[in-house]
Amino acid sequence: MRASAGLWSSFRTRLIIGAIIWITAGMAVSGVVLSELFRAHVTQQFDDELHGHAAELAALAGVRPDGAPEIHRRLSDPRFLPHRSGFYWQLSSADGQRLVSPSLEGAALVLGVPAPAPGHERHSFIQGPTGELRLVERIVTPPGAAAPLRIAIGSDERLLNEVLARFNRTLALSLSFIALGLIFAAGAQIWFGLRPLARVREALAAVRSGQAHSLPEDLPSEVRPLAADLNALLEANSEMLRRARTQAGNLGHALKTPLAILADEAERLNTAGQGEAAGVLQTQIERMRRQIDFQMARARAAASHGTPGIACEVGAVVTPVLSAMRRLHGPRGVSFEADIAETLQVAMDPLDLGEVIANLLDNAGKWATGQVKVTAVTARDGIKICIDDDGAGLPPEAWELVFDIGERLDEQAPGSGLGLAIVRDLVTLYGGRVWLEASQMSGLRACLLLPRA
């Protein structure tokens, strides 16, 4: 049922199947009609030919003095000569004497009774020496004859059937070639007619992959309104995304300003000797900052996720982040290397991917003793990015714990404990996955699996 529904869900398939059905039915009906018309024409032609032979035989027939029938000369058609060609004639007198054509080779035609009325022709079918015979009979009285003669002349029905069979074979072959040509022409017309829809589909794929920002306008008049509506929808979606990001940024700045004032007040309280109150205030301020940073990143990713055209090259995003990490951790002797193909693209906003990579590289740089390496490869389910360091690593039981918000396994290291939580939330919003495992460089490996653009 699903395969049948999928088959009929295509305009092209429906049109082609419809064209095949109508062309086949039309050719079949045309073949039957033409065959019947040709049968009627050939049958009439055979009958007319028999009438002509009967008239010729009547003109040549005569009676000998002993009453036996005779002909003054043979018929002009050579098919009445010997060898049973399928054309036969017979003259019969009233006393039973007969004269037959040489093609009968001594046999006789068994005629029906009674004989036809004088002046009338009778059409009938009898069994001849080589099969069913199409027969024409008439009664004539030759000049000087005392009694009439019964003229019978006929041809094998198989001769008519052979002509019809040859015509039907030729007709079927011709109509088959015509039908194939019409089906091919219909398929080409359907392909050409639906080509604008294929262009719209290709343009939508380009928009989704970030290669274009709108659909083309040079489309047929039937498709142009659809493209215009889709362009308006894309523009409205982009404008909504810009507004959402602007509002999130404004909200973050609006909240950070009061927090800075509260932090100054906490410092003033600490200077005034109220260290306990200042400590409580500073702890709550730090928690509020973490939540603001976390929710800001989450809101930005939620707004970007699923937006058509969201895509970025992994190498283009990683390169500037590596430069920043070298300046930050280089004085400690930590080197940063990358092995990334230039063509790898992920369906993720470059700002969000940059934040994810920056958090992971910064975390690796803090714990590395001398080297951090970034690799990116194409996997079956997307793009896999791995960040390895040669630090001390983490025990396996802590690999999931570090992704919790605010979780820090070493309070002496700088940071808020929010980086990996932001990483997991951002990656999850884009339909990806992040996990930790042991690195071949003796430290820790952070792995990302992101959807391919």
Automatic annotation (TrEMBL):
Domain annotation Histidine kinase: ranges: 250-453
A Pfam family: HATPase_c
GO molecular function: ATP binding
Transmembrane regions: 15-34, 171-192
Keywords: ATP-binding, Kinase, Membrane, Nucleotide-binding, Phosphoprotein, Transferase, Transmembrane, Transmembrane helix, Two-component regulatory system
Domain HAMP: 191-242
Entry annotated with the keyword Ribonucleoprotein: no
Location of this chain's protein in the cell: Membrane
Known catalytic reactions: ATP + protein L-histidine = ADP + protein N-phospho-L-histidine
Enzyme kind, highest EC tier: transferase
Predominant location category: membrane
EC number in record: 2.7.13.3
Family annotation (PANTHER family): SENSOR HISTIDINE KINASE TRCS, SENSOR HISTIDINE KINASE YKOH
Record protein name field: histidine kinase
